[in-house]
Design a protein that fits this description.
By secondary structure, the protein is of the alpha+beta class. The protein has a single domain, classed as 2,3-Dihydroxybiphenyl 1,2-Dioxygenase, domain 1 (Roll), CATH 3.10.180. The protein has two helices and eight strands. An eight-stranded mixed β-sheet has the order 2-3-4-1-5-8-7-6. Strand 7 and strand 8 form a beta hairpin.
Length: 132
Amino acid sequence: MPGINITRINHVGIPITDRKKTLPFYRDLLGISVIPSQVDSEKIVWTQLVDGAMIHAIEQADNWHIAFQVDDIDATRTALEEAGFEISSDGERHDGQRYVFVNDPDGNRIEFATASGRIKNSRQADEWGYTS
């Protein structure tokens, strides 16, 4: 599709039921780091692999999604809208990452986002991913 240049998978959002049950698997067994969340939600734990890809563990059953990183979010948005896809939400996170969500033809939530970490901030996460 013209105007959309996917550069990598930025993150996958997976539903979990209880972070204290699930995080030991990802953090301790798999060695994935817990990092500060860049959204204001107590239900999301941000984790990151060594290569920068992330898993967002979300204590909400209906919030599965994949986020594709793109080099130009405005061109991506335009291409999606011109192709007839409705933007279901959009915005900018605390670290300056911009994003748009659409539903694919089968109704799956798909996110397109810029690179993470565009703005430095002082957010900190504890071992369970609670961010302040």
